């Protein structure tokens, strides 16, 4: 049947009704599916003006676009072409998923699914009259084969109504690999081949599916920067948001709820020393004694991660058995290197560690009990905050001993197309062969491959080359999962990588919220500092996401993870700052309660002195130039009588401990529990220009410091700040 553009869509067709019944779509999902198809029918879409389906990483985007396919088949579309990222594994996973989702109509000879490279040369008219789905990798040979199929082998297909679904459609996936220019050229070639096809096809629609709104800002060619420093994205014809599953676990859990000491998420992140990642690169017998893996200090984190995975899996399986549920299989992923030699070494390391655990269990070696007990104490802290039953240590010790002796753990290297295809199960996910599955790999694992029941993630890729698409695809620990699984989940990475991932999560969240509010109609401010130290507009194509800072209303920015200098070295500088502040407090041009206004240049000079008095710990950073640049930008962005000034909120005699109750560096010196609340004061005065909270700490040795008083600065953005992305470095 054909549908004119002004008709409403048909909702009672067999494809859609079968999917609704079998997949039990919730109301929010049906609304997303139906609105998308209504828009595809009504709007004229193309690769330059696509329909947009915006979801989150592992949030059900595939499930949703397959529902859209079914409803599209009921509304006049005969052929769906799914464009996947250029790996055999993803193409295979997509093929298997489509076959599964449409099993009923395929069995009833209403539909056929083909990988374009496996399409028969003798497809009969009887088959071509069915609804068709073609899986096409975004690479040259696949695109050429698609063109040959539509115009040479089966030209009748080119006259059918066709829906293109561009899965993981973003430019970041191509534009920011090692050979940037070559990859951009390849991207343009693929885009050009799609456009060539569409120019000669009679009736097509185009839907892009992506997990990051950042992709809307990344374009293959330079686009003009409009007024007000706003870089306008290409406009989608329409956008639909994929509803998030009520069990979805994403960046909010890892980077927001984790800051709440009372939430089980506060136990997720375990910091890894950079030096341990070096050990993971290759076997170095000077560093590693292969017969003492249960004792060695320089592999403490990978050993802890491995044991925690076994103990965590054992806890979950014990809980399931106690509750009369089926015992699940669990997975743990190691992703630190691309090279196959590193993967082979990591597999040997884990296998030897597993063998030594088994030997120690058989011999009742005290080290076995010590390792399990340490892991149990770590995991039970979060398990006790969850909803499942709490096992005793003795119960879990028995479970773990049995798991180790009966070889419940299996390790698999996943670093080639062949390996992935061999490891995929009937659902297109990595096959969980045993109760506890360790996957070791590199680039293949970051291309959207789904890993079920992932409760351990050891990650160590270099953050200096991070880009939005890459980082989000690496985040395989995201997805819908029960809170009981989250309670035994642990995420191991370095502090610097964690900080970059947190910034990218914040960036992605802010863009998404801006997009949902309609902010994409105005665009988002992208700025950078030029060679003349001026803040200027910045093309999103040029930013390195490992070097960005988000500025938004009333955001606070402060150094954390530091020690003071020694008293003899910093006392003179600290006293100088105190005298300058007292001088400005007396002579300030304006007061508002206890806050006073000083020129931004004076505030910047004070920050320069404070910077000299503290020493950042390994993995932590306070970039003074960026801090001062943001201070100047926020001070001068708003046209008001306060332009060029900064509010100072000063407090003395403070006694904040260096570490909090969980042994982490204190990060909230401006929100004391005794009701003084300088952050509230700062946010009250920071309307047009920023506030700088300056906290004079006594720095006592019993509080973890060096016995030297010091000043701790907290920058608070003004209420009327426009959301901006500040890039300290660009490509």
Task: Specify the biggest β-sheet.
Answer: 7 strands, parallel
- Integer tally of domains: 3
Low-confidence stretches: 1-6, 171-184, 218-233
Report strand %: 15-25%
Strand-helix topology:
Layout: H1 14-23, H2 27-42, E1 51-54, H3 61-74, E2 79-84, H4 88-101, H5 103-107, E3 111-115, H6 125-128, E4 131-137, H7 140-153, E5 161-167, H8 172-175, H9 180-200, E6 203-210, E7 230-231, E8 238-241, E9 248-249, H10 251-255, E10 269-271, H11 274-279, H12 300-322, E11 330-335, H13 340-362, H14 366-383, H15 393-405, E12 409-414, H16 417-423, E13 436-441, E14 454-459, H17 468-474, E15 479-480, H18 483-487, E16 490-493, H19 495-516, E17 524-529, E18 535-537, E19 548-551, E20 556-557, E21 562-564, H20 567-587, E22 590-592, E23 595-599, H21 600-611, E24 614-616, H22 624-636, E25 645-654, H23 678-685, E26 691-697, E27 710-716, E28 724-727
Parallel strand pairs: 1-6, 1-8, 2-4, 2-5, 3-4, 5-6, 10-16, 11-13, 11-14, 12-13, 14-16, 17-28, 25-26
Antiparallel strand pairs: 7-17, 9-15, 17-18, 19-28, 20-27, 21-24, 22-23, 23-25, 26-27
